[in-house]
Amino acid sequence: MALSKLDQYRRAVEITVDITGGKWKPLIIHYLLSGTKRFGKLKKLIGGVTQRSLTLQLRQLEANGIISRKVFAEVPPRVEYTLTALGLTLAPTLEAMKSWGEHYLASKHRKPKA
Amino acid sequence: MALSKLDQYRRAVEITVDITGGKWKPLIIHYLLSGTKRFGKLKKLIGGVTQRSLTLQLRQLEANGIISRKVFAEVPPRVEYTLTALGLTLAPTLEAMKSWGEHYLASKHRKPKA
Asked: Is the peptide bond before B76 cis (omega within 30 degrees of 0)?
């Protein structure tokens, strides 16, 4: 079934919101942009995130094809996360979203509204 | 309380997701980019949206300072919506989100994953 142009537009924006909108996802992607990271390193870099929450968000990003996960047969096991080619293409979009958010927050700060 | 750089980053992306992430919000903004519209016109342009749902999303956009609402004392009353200066600045960000979403959907289409 062909989607109308409008539905396509809405769906395209929505999918970006869905994929990037998790509480820790922008930060995960942000840190992986500078290279592959181990789980523990990501956890330390991000700070306030729990083990469970980070695991969940990493799984969702992996399921969406944004990151890849590699397990090394070591003791203790080493798990590394890397942005996929698709994940790398998110960089400019996230940057645009971050910039607009900053602009918004700054404008609210200048003219507080009830 | 000063936010850490990380918190600022997360908050900036999150606010953009919050403000643009409503089911009909990208479409509302999209249509208002071409100029002021009446409620009924927006409803017709968007299609599948209910009166209640459109009203709710317009109110949220108004509360966030993205659109302004003007009521004309006519019979029947005329209500018009216009993007604010702040709302206009969303255009390139929404465009980036739309483009990436299209890219994502196309890539999924090429390599279907379980």
From this structure: yes
